[in-house]
């Protein structure tokens, strides 16, 4: 890992206007990611984790803030610059059953980024796709090229999703809960695979998850989100050993412990839940 950041995010915000007022889905988020580093974003459903991932790969446009992935300001890219940006930032979606066209073959699915980016001839693409399928553990690749998604297991489909994201050799990948739809044995294999690819290819990951155990295993640092804001960000072991924010402490207190006799002190949380619409201009957890 080098000190040169692959990704720089500053003051990132996105607000949705609804009839009752404003929902601040993401507000004032900022961080950096170095080559080969993995940052976990954790929090409850609706806190803005997936929204941040979509903003970083330009599936959504922010209201404010700056995103730098090779380009000076990714947030303002259009046209041909946007296509060039896609060569450096990709996303692995949560559900391998819904994120693939069931009518297309595995070769079509994985080679599509190469076709869009006009990389190589047809034979070059067959070779690149075969190499990528092999790297994600789908071997021999020739047995998978012309199969369809319904012919694969859940773990195999997720490996195809990873291959699709990595086939153009991006610098940065958003992984949106890539193991949540899988059984335990497949989940372990996918996590090991992603760690190996980060080491071999130097890919920086933003790893979106609600599972602190997965975040501890996969990530160098963890950012804790609550109602659109990052309330705490630290090195993984430091955050788990010495959480500072009361919401982080509450999350950790909810992690199951494999000991029936273990007893925890309940977190000392006072007050009611903050409304998501027109939230007050203060810490959202108070």
TrEMBL record:
Matches recorded under Pfam families: ABC_tran, oligo_HPY
Gene Ontology molecular functions: ATP binding; ATP hydrolysis activity
Record's keyword terms, sorted: ATP-binding, Nucleotide-binding, Transport
Keyword Cytoplasm: no
Entry-linked InterPro entries: AAA+_ATPase (IPR003593), ABC_transp_ATP-bind (IPR050319), ABC_transporter-like_ATP-bd (IPR003439), ABC_transporter-like_CS (IPR017871), Oligopep_ABC_C (IPR013563), P-loop_NTPase (IPR027417)
GO biological process: peptide transport; transmembrane transport
Residues in the signal sequence: none
Stretches assigned to the ABC transporter domain: 7-252
Protein name as it appears in the record: Oligopeptide transport ATP-binding protein YkfD
